[in-house]
Design brief:
- By secondary structure, this protein is an alpha/beta fold.
- Helices cover 49% and strands 14% of the residues.
- An 8-stranded mixed β-sheet has the order 3-2-1-4-5-6-7-8.
- Strand 1, helix 1 and strand 2 form a beta-alpha-beta unit.
- Helix 1 packs across helix 2 and helix 2 packs antiparallel against helix 3.
Length: 243
């Protein structure tokens, strides 16, 4: 199940149906839901056009998408991904409503790294089912996914989300949410140092090559270029707030 139709939510929905999952996509109004459904179908159609799937596979994948503005289908779910945006009070109301609709063993995961899991976890009747899932930017290009847990998060919830991440073909690392995550702390510190070396006169090519030889997918300067400096500034601000 997926709440919200953000770009990340639609990316995950596409990946899930291609892997054979049934996906219930919920939005608050028919217009937003319709636009999201069209984007999903177009993405799958583009994949079929370039030969990544047959026409029969395309039709099967589309049939596994179940759009709704109600809670229809949520009683059968194993995992619900919360990708909605809004004030914490609205978030808490939505979660209480969601929990009344899903099975007791279903897991709820939040994909927005700046929405503190510990802040809304007490809202749930079963807080152990809540876990965070952070896809480092640029989304879709990095092989690592952070699974964010609090002391109240249960082992079964962590295993469920790690299984989902593995199904997507990515590697998961479990970190405590209170640390601010692993990737963000290391990445922002590394980019800061890259800027210092650049201002001291080091060639940018040397900085990029050194980090890629170390094992990074992108050098720090290429990463910032791909992400956009405005987005990086937001990441940096949140990293500082995390301590």
């Amino acid at each position: 199940g997926i709440l919200g139709a953000t770009p990340l939510a639609l990316h995950l929905a596409t990946q899930a149906v291609v892997k054979g999952c049934h996906v219930v996509l919920r939005e608050k109004d028919e217009m937003t839901l319709g636009m999201a459904s069209l984007r999903l179908v177009k993405t799958l159609q583009d994949e079929a056009t370039r030969g990544a799937m047959t026409e029969e596979m395309f039709k099967s994948n589309v049939n596994r998408i179940r759009p709704t503005v109600t809670w229809k289908g949520f009683g059968e779910l194993e995992l619900v991904i919360d990708a909605t945006h809004g004030a914490i009070e609205a978030e808490q109301r939505l979660l209480r409503e969601l929990e009344a609709q899903i099975p007791d063993e279903a897991v709820i995961t939040c994909v927005r790294p700046w929405r503190a899991l510990a802040g809304w976890q007490p809202t749930l009747r079963r807080p152990e089912r809540a876990v965070g899932m952070h896809f480092p930017a640029p989304v879709g290009r990095t092989p690592l996914v952070e699974v964010l847990a609090t002391p109240a998060t249960g082992d079964q919830a962590v295993r469920c989300v790690r299984g989902f991440v593995a199904m997507l073909g990515k590697v998961s690392v479990v970190v405590q949410e209170t640390t601010g995550g692993l990737v963000l702390r290391v990445l922002c510190a590394g980019c800061d140092e890259a800027f210092r070396l650049l201002f001291e006169g080091q060639p940018p090519e040397r900085l990029e090559q050194s980090m890629q030889l170390f094992g990074m997918v992108y050098g720090p300067l290429q990463f910032m270029d791909l992400l956009g400096l405005d987005e990086f500034a937001l990441l940096h601000e949140n990293a500082e707030q995390a301590g």
